[in-house]
Structures are given as C-alpha cells and as structure tokens.
Specification:
This protein is mainly alpha-helical and 119 residues long. The protein has a single domain, classed as 23S rRNA-intervening sequence (de novo design (two linked rop proteins)). Helices cover 76% and strands 0% of the residues. Helix 1 packs antiparallel against helix 4 and helix 3 packs antiparallel against helix 4. The longest helix has 27 residues. The protein is elongated and about 45 Å long. The two termini are 26 Å apart.
Length: 119
C-alpha cells in the first residue's frame, strides 16, 4: 500500500530539496541553530508536508490550496537563502543550485495546479 503523494514527482523532488537544505544548513554557525537554520528547515520541510497533506484532501480545490502554501514555503526558503548568501553562510555556487531547484519546484507545483484546475 502506498499513499497518493508518494507517486507525485513534485513530492519526491521536495524531499530531495529538503535534504539539500538540511545538509547545507548543518554548516552554518552554531549561533544560527535556533534562528535562521531552524526557520529554513521548518520552511523547507513544509513544502513536502503540504504537498502530502493536500494530496489526500476531498477535492482538488483543497489540494490546490495546499499546493499554494507549498509555494509560499519555497519562497520563504529562497528568502532565507538570500540572507544566508548575504551573511556568507553559503557560497554563490550553492546558492545558485538551490535557487534553481526552488524555481523548478515552483514551476512544477504551478503545472500541477493548472492540471488540477482543468479537471
């Protein structure tokens, strides 16, 4: 038996993105552990969590609402990554990689939203 969300490529990609953010934030200074690191990690896991939770809702309209929340979480992560770059906690190469991945995730979520709207 499997859950509906497990089959969604966007959920799988969101999980991988979360792992990448967790790995990169593990290198942040200890004094950021309960501030920027915590905020980034909560936001990044919220992406996959909202996709999963929304996928089992009773209607596509409800699922779309959760997908939008997932997009907001991506935007929160990107903002945290910009701040991390500004503070030199991450380098430009790592920032660009995560930024590109965030854009792909948002594009794919939007594509799923559009598909659900047409059904």
């Amino acid at each position: 038996m499997s859950f509906r969300f497990e089959k969604l490529e966007i959920w799988q990609q969101a999980r991988k993105f979360a792992v990448e953010v967790y790995k990169i934030t593990s290198k942040y200074p200890n004094y950021e552990k309960f501030s920027l690191v915590n905020q980034l990690r909560r936001a990044v896991i919220s992406i996959a969590l909202n996709i999963a939770e929304g996928s089992d809702r009773k209607s596509d309209k409800e699922f779309i609402r959760f997908l939008r929340v997932a997009i907001w979480s991506v935007e929160e992560v990107v903002t945290g990554l910009f701040i991390s770059l500004d503070l030199n906690y991450i380098n430009k190469k790592d920032f660009d990689k995560l930024y590109d991945e965030a854009n792909i995730i948002v594009s794919r979520i939007n594509a799923l939203v559009n598909k659900l709207k047409k059904q």
